C-alpha cells in the first residue's frame, strides 16, 4: 500500500486534484463577489460556476491522463477526432456557441440586467419587455400583455437595445409632429 502511495503518478494526481479543487473554489468565490458588486442574479453566478467548472475539471483530467503516461499519440488522435466531430456539430449549429459566448459577454459587460425594462430595436419585430432571466443560450422577456418571449443572446447583442426604466416607449418610438407621416 505504501509503495502505491509513494509513486510519483499518485502524488502528482493528488496535487492536480487539489489545485483544480482550489481553483474551482476560487472561481466560485470570485463569481459570488463579482455578482454582488455588479448586482447580478444568483442564477447567473451558477451558470458561470458550472461552465468554468467544466473547463477546469476537463483540463485536470487531461493533465492526469498525461501524468499516468497514456500514449500521447493515442491521446492526441482520439482528442483530435473528438474535436473534429464536435467542430462539425458546432459548425452546423454555430448559433449555440455564439449564444453561449454572448451569455458571458452579457453577464460581464452589458448595462442591462434582470428586471430592466428594455426595447429591442428590430426592424421586423420590435420588442418592448422586462428581462425575466438571462440564461446560457437565450434571454427570457415578458411583455406588458404577459407574453413570454425567449430571445437568443447573440441577437440581443446584435440589435440596438434601449433601457426604458419606467418609460412606456423608447425615443425611437415617438412620432414627432413635424415628421412626415408618409415616410414611415
Walk me through this protein's architecture.
The protein has helices at residues 2-5, 8-38, 42-67, 72-92, 94-109, 153-158; strands spanning 117-121, 127-134, 138-142, 148-152, 160-163. Helix 2 runs antiparallel to helix 3 and helix 4 packs across helix 5. The chain has a five-stranded antiparallel sheet with strand order 4-3-2-1-5. The chain contains six helices and five strands, in the order H-H-H-H-H-E-E-E-E-H-E. 11% of the residues are buried. The mean pLDDT is 78. With 184 residues, the protein is an alpha+beta fold.
Structural class: alpha+beta
Kindly report the spatial arrangement of strands forming the biggest sheet: 4-3-2-1-5
Tell me the number of helical segments per DSSP (H or I, 4 or more residues long).
6
Instruction: List segments where confidence is low: pLDDT < 50 over at least 5 consecutive residues.
Output: none
- Arithmetic mean of pLDDT: 78
The geometry reads as elongated
Order of helices and strands: HHHHHEEEEHE
